[in-house]
Amino acid sequence: MRFIHATAGTIRQHAGITVLPFWLKSSALILRLAACHNIALLCKIMHINATNIATWRIDMKLPDARRQKILDLLSHHGELQASALAEKLGISEDTVRRDLIRLESIGLLRRVRGGAIPRTQVPLHHQERLGRTGASKSAIASMAVSLIQQDDVVGLDGGTTTLAIAQAIPPGLRCTVVTNNLPAAMALADHADVEVIVLGGKLFKPAMDMTGHKVCEELRTMAFDICFIGAAAANIKTGFSSIDYDETQVKRGLAQAAERSVCVISGEKIGKHSPFSYASPAEISDIITDGDAPADYISLFRGEGVNVIVAG
Q1: Is 126-310 the same fold as 62-118?
Q2: Cα separations (Å) of 70 from 64, 89, 96, 97, 151?
Q3: Which CATH architecture has domain 62-118?
Q4: Which residues touch 70 (CB under 8 Å, ≥6 apart)?
Q5: What is the C-alpha separation between 288 and 270, in angstroms, rounded?
Q6: Does the keyword Electron transport apply (predicted)?
Q7: For the segment 140-153, what is each residue's pLDDT rounded down to a tens digit?
Q8: Is there a contact between 212 and 246 (Cβ–Cβ < 8 Å)?
Q9: What is the pLDDT of residues 214-264, one digit of tens each?
Q10: How far apart are CA 43 and CA 53, in angstroms?
């Protein structure tokens, strides 16, 4: 069965030839159906596709639908140029720029030169975060613990992933843990081989960790063999960041006090941005993450000299 392409939006037969709309020319399914003379199904598919295209064009004229699509694309890709967004959405770059300005004004993304990166959402309360991505946190924690050597002095940040690290330290691993993470300190209270030093300061109740200038002052007098720090977001351009200013100061103090600084972070947070950065890629030795981390960002961080370990 032979076929030709029609510029009209119809499918028809002419002199034994199936005539297809030009916009269907690349579809293997269409070719198979044409070979089987299944014109009725071809017409149905054509109608569905034409309807979808029309609906898409209408949606892209609606600001809310268009901006949601931008957020979806950024969430998937981590960072996109305005020109790429314009091409993907079939709209002008001027329209994209106006949408990016609007979305940044309400805190849903951060504009960078030529495009945008997504912001992370406000973190949940400590108790709510405990039940999220449990298997992923366990895998990250196990990998983190494997980096601790006998008699190491270990800095441990606040958060539920670092809590999982404390819980994963096995009997017989002798070390000193310095932490502002109250649940982690409590988890190590009965560990016979771990000495625990709790940093004092103001209790940040949503995260159950200690923050403030006193914690930062104490950190300036310390030196760690290794530290494990959480992050709300990690991005090549803006580094490792948190959504809370006071927590960020503690994270920066931990990173600066350690010979080896390790960021423990779930893959969904990589490629995103939070308001307060505590370290650049050059200041972090390793990233331990999970299988949800975007492959392109893993390559970018490795290109910056960061050792990226995918756990699980």
Answers
A1: no
A2: 10, 8, 9, 11, 49
A3: Orthogonal Bundle (1.10)
A4: 85, 89, 96, 99, 100, 103, 109, 116
A5: 11
A6: no
A7: 999 999 999 999 99
A8: yes
A9: 999 999 999 999 999 999 999 998 899 988 888 999 999 999 999 999 999
A10: 15
Residues 6+ apart with CB under 8 A from 92: 86
> Taking a C-beta distance cutoff of 8 angstroms, is the pair 164, 172 a contact?
no
Give the pair of three-digit tokens for residue 264: 């423990």
Question: Structure tokens of 216?
Answer: 């930062």
Alpha helix positions (H), the chain? 28-35, 39-61, 63-77, 82-89, 93-105, 126-129, 134-145, 160-168, 182-187, 213-219, 245-257, 295-303
Cα gap 162→168, rounded to integer Å = 10
Q: Which helix (H) or strand (E) holds 153?
A: strand 152-156
Whether the Cβ atoms of residue 235 and residue 117 lie closer than 8 Å to each other: yes
Q: Tell me, what amino acid is at 306? A: V
How do the domains of the chain map onto residue ranges?
2-59, 62-118, 126-310
Tens place of pLDDT per residue across the chain (312 aa)? 344 444 334 444 444 444 444 434 444 444 454 455 555 554 454 444 544 444 545 567 788 888 888 887 876 676 788 898 888 888 999 999 999 988 887 667 778 888 887 776 545 455 555 555 578 899 999 999 999 999 999 999 999 999 999 999 999 999 999 999 999 999 999 999 999 999 998 888 888 899 999 999 999 999 999 999 999 999 998 899 988 888 999 999 999 999 999 999 999 899 888 888 999 999 999 999 999 999 999 999 999 999 999 997
126-310 to CATH, choices 3.40.50.11540, 2.40.50.140, 3.40.50.1360, 3.40.50.150: 3.40.50.1360
Whether pTM exceeds 0.85: no
